[in-house]
């Protein structure tokens, strides 16, 4: 009976904040595996400035020496808009019936959940874990607050295979892909904000310049 985490994103580029969130989620939830899933075309963001294959390669480089972190290219293979509903449904179908799937999402994205495709059905396929940090600015909309009423639990009290939502406190790291891209475009250093091998790949292919 495996406990599988899923953390999606454009990863444009992947950075230390993503990796810390993943590692801390593995430890808090006692996950057997956490899958990082790069989006092909995220429906709620602009199209990534770097193509999917290069973003996938950077994620593979970032996780190659980190236990329990794996890369899942399911969304890239679909070659179309990356709807979380479709991804969770496909993963749940592929997993053994006794496995439990945990979908991990950041606070800002979670507060926008009512705008997602078939959002109220996501819990049919997983538990949702929401990453929190100090000084959160986004507010939970009323529709989502009502949805949470009988589903929100402490993360260590989650039972069953699907249907619950919990919050996870994470180490506050003020790192963003946007800031990294801006620094690179301005010729500023981004050392220690992302893995060295990812930075080497970015420099080799002259990305974000």
UniProtKB/TrEMBL annotation:
GO terms for molecular function: ATP binding; nicotinate-nucleotide adenylyltransferase activity. It is an enzyme of class 2 (transferase). Keywords: ATP-binding, NAD, Nucleotide-binding, Nucleotidyltransferase, Pyridine nucleotide biosynthesis, Transferase. It catalyses: nicotinate beta-D-ribonucleotide + ATP + H(+) = deamido-NAD(+) + diphosphate. Pfam families: CTP_transf_like (PF01467). It comes from the Bacteria. Transmembrane segments: none annotated. Its EC number is 2.7.7.18. InterPro entries: Cyt_trans-like (IPR004821), NadD/NMNAT (IPR005248), Rossmann-like_a/b/a_fold (IPR014729). Pathway: Cofactor biosynthesis; NAD(+) biosynthesis; deamido-NAD(+) from nicotinate D-ribonucleotide: step 1/1. Residues 6-182 form the Cytidyltransferase-like domain. GO terms for biological process: NAD+ biosynthetic process. Catalyzes the reversible adenylation of nicotinate mononucleotide (NaMN) to nicotinic acid adenine dinucleotide (NaAD). Belongs to the NadD family. This is Probable nicotinate-nucleotide adenylyltransferase. It comes from Entomomonas moraniae.
